[in-house]
Design brief:
37% helix; Rossmann fold; single chain; AAA+_ATPase; ATP-binding cassette domain-containing protein; binds adenosine-5'-triphosphate
Length: 296
């Protein structure tokens, strides 16, 4: 049951209008109709006006092949706008200094990698970027719309993926059905079709990480903070992940990703090396971009 027969053609036409390939638009319309059938409700009732849902979905997906090259930058995502700025940031736990005097600027359309030895403070720095931990010194300015994907945790074992979508969507003021539908679309892009009955604790580690990733981007944030988000991914999903990072960058989002895999660095614009072994200031440009971080 999809309700108003004009809804799906309008939805598909709007997706094409927004730059999607016709075949991709048709596929999304098909998936959307299927979701409506599974919920046993009309599309308009579930998703609201077709053109608004199409815009929401394109913003949320920003996936490779989803968007044709844009002739203009979407409003609010102008390339170059500063999304994150750390100045002189340091963190101490009791008497132990984890890192000191870190500068980092991430603009819309940039990917920054945070690297360094185990225990040098990469996760701590990312939590500071997300506003989940307070720096001992320095200042942090960030955009309001941030998506954070922790290294582990972040999901509740007794909830299903759909329940996670609803819960995290509610925090971003998304209606439950829209949150579930967006979550399912994002999941499929990672080659994952969530099982409605299976709780997070019964998912494989890699699939739980996919859930984490979907939750981090459910509300279409401007800035994504990813803490080694691909652990447990198989090779195909890992490749898809970096394609997705490029798609986020191309759609004008900023990405900070913690990684210990040096071959990942070819995908990024700047590298912040937090390693205690690094002799002094150590942010370097990568792939022709610029870096502004340092560690004293
Ligand atoms: N709440 C805390 N209290 C005390 N020490 C902490 C706390 N959180 C982290 N640390 C310490 O801070 C240091 C940095 O930890 P963090 O997890 O940020 O490092 P990391 O670079 O992400 O490590 P890894 O590469 O192993 O993931 C570690 O020595 C850790 O033990």
């Amino acid at each position: 049951m999809t309700g108003d027969p004009r809804w799906l053609p309008r939805f598909e036409a709007e997706l094409v209008q927004l730059g999607l390939e016709p075949a991709r638009a048709r596929q999304l319309a098909g998936e959307t109709a299927q979701q409506a059938a599974e919920f046993g409700a009309g599309t308009a009732e579930l998703f609201g006006p077709a053109h608004l849902y199409a815009r929401h979905l394109v913003a949320a997906l920003s996936a490779p092949g989803d968007t044709a090259p844009r002739t203009e930058t979407p409003p609010g995502l102008a390339r170059g706008r500063v999304l994150l700025r750390l100045e002189g940031v340091g963190k101490r736990h009791r008497r132990t200094t984890v890192f000191a005097d870190v500068d980092l600027t991430v603009r819309a359309g940039e990917v920054a990698a945070v690297v360094g030895a185990n225990g040098c403070g990469k996760s701590t720095l990312l939590r500071i970027c997300a506003g989940l931990s307070t720096p001992t010194t320095g200042t942090v300015h960030r955009t309001a719309r941030v998506g954070y994907v922790p290294q582990d945790g972040g999901t509740a074992g007794w909830l299903t993926p759909a329940e996670h979508f609803t819960l995290f969507g509610a925090a971003a003021r998304m209606a439950p059905r829209r949150a579930r539908s967006t979550g399912e679309h994002l999941a499929r892009r990672l080659a994952w079709r969530p099982d409605r009955a299976r709780c997070a604790q019964h998912l494989s580690g890699g699939t739980r990480q996919k859930l984490n990733l979907v939750l981090g981007e459910l509300h279409a944030p401007d800035l994504l903070l990813l803490d080694e988000p691909y652990q447990g991914f198989d090779q195909g999903t890992y490749v898809d992940f970096w394609q997705q990072v490029r798609a986020w960058r191309d759609s004008g989002r900023g990405v900070v990703v913690v990684t210990h895999l040096l071959h990942d660095l070819r995908h990024v614009d700047q590298v912040l090396d937090l390693s205690a072994a690094a002799p002094g200031p150590s942010t370097a440009p990568a792939g022709g971009g610029h870096g502004t971080g340092r560690r004293a």
